[in-house]
Amino acid sequence: MKEYKNFIDGKWVPSVTGKTYEDRNPANYDEVIGIFPQSNYEDVERAVKAAKKAYEYWRSVPAPKRGEILRKAGELMLQRKEELARLMTQEMGKILKEARGDVQEGIDTAFYAFGEGRRLFSYTTPSELPNKMAFVIRQPIGVWGIITPWNFPIAIPSWKIFPALLCGNTVVFKPATDTPACAAKLVEILAEAGVPDGVVNLVFGKGGEVGEAILNHPEIRGVSFTGSSEVGKRIGEVCGKMLKKCSLELGGKNAQIVLKDANLDLALEGVLWGAFGTTGQRCTATSRLILEEEIYEQFIERLIERAKKIKIGNGLKEDTEMGPLINESQRKRVDEYVKIGIKEGAKLVCGGKYYEEGECKKGFFYEPTIFVDVKEDMTIFQEEIFGPVLSVIKAKNFEDAIRILNNSRYGLSSSIYTNDIRKAAKAIEMIEAGITYVNAPTIGAECHLPFGGVKETGNGHREGGWTVYDIFSELKTVYIDYSGILQKAQIDTWEK
Questions:
Q1: Rounded to an integer, what distance in angstroms lies between the CA atom of residue 181 and that of residue 22?
Q2: Which structural domains are found in the chain, ordered by start?
Q3: Residues 193-223: pLDDT tens digits?
Q4: d(CA 115, CA 107)
Q5: Residue 493: per-residue pLDDT
Q6: Is the pTM of this model over 0.85?
Q7: Alpha-carbon distance 443 to 245, whole Å?
Q8: Among residues 148, 251, 244, which one has the least CA distance to residue 472?
Q9: Residues tagged active-site
Q10: Interatomic CA distance for residues 473 and 120, integer angstroms
């Protein structure tokens, strides 16, 4: 059994606390993946000191050269894709096909960052005065705290760390306590690719200790966080008081609309994938299904029939369709929401209990669960559950469906299935979400496009694509006056 250490200033070092915890396989909790440090603020202090020192050198490395290192990291990830995917499945439970996709997203993000190293575009614009030049350049910010969740343990850290490094920042990285091994492998790859000592630092531990230390450290200039809206609000509050840059990608309560004119076979496959892929543990998961009333009964009948056939089990088996929940605490949380749904009057038509057949007795498995006849004010329709629970509601027509979808405090992803181009276009206009899919499920974002949402889904930033480079860089406006005389902006132009 491997015992892991923190990575600080280019070295693997033990935590000052001497305390450790076990990382276990959620499909078989008898299997220990590794032993990891329970770090504290002193470990964060050491990491920040190393990152601040490395920043002075790293920021001076030309962006194309920084991009070359990230390209090499992407190539190493490509070579080790299967190894990383299998580790991910062991560590957090998602099926191998999804784990390979998670790693591929990290690879794609690395190659995109490599290309961005030769762009990092800004603006050149005319000055209002003669013999004067005006333009804008991008500059790094400093040390960033990166705090990531367990559901995409390679992709999400890549979304944050690669752009941060490309822009010339250094990083103190705290991964989720449920997926530390994937984080260690990612940092190993970055070091092997040539990232200098101190540029990336990895500190394992709990959010209440390591996360809070990162959040409150005066030398950390920005924090990027993906997780729950409740924790995100706390991070935004502290960053606001300290005037730190802050990027928050938070919860979702995503809905798929199916209209009567839709391809129902396609819509059925879409909702099954959106609701039960990754065991519903995606911020973009389809947790609400809105059906136009003419197709309500027939679609539900087909949905239940297909959901009951989903093969549950260890994700390392190629024929498994749905793996376990991440831990026992999350399984209990999902079960509590199911009980609330029943109590509030929703009709449970599929699942609704622990799955403990055969080998699954040793894991945190839960059946694909479907509620019908759900009302808009029900808890299961409004709150993020983060598990394989789908709430189905009836809409009178297209307009009613849009209204129901928008009745949420979240606004991350959305989906509509229709063959009416006019309704599709109107949905794109009227849906309150950062992402809208037409004739596709709510999951499936691509790394070269902006990712994020509205309302309580975040604080307005977008990860992915070109937009993430706005988060991790500052703009500096530059004026060069080669007139040889004192020119007074606004004053000279007004008087002349």
A1: 11
A2: 6-250+458-477 (3.40.605.10), 254-438 (3.40.309.10)
A3: 999 999 999 999 999 999 999 999 999 999 9
A4: 13
A5: 82
A6: yes
A7: 28
A8: 244
A9: 249, 283
A10: 10
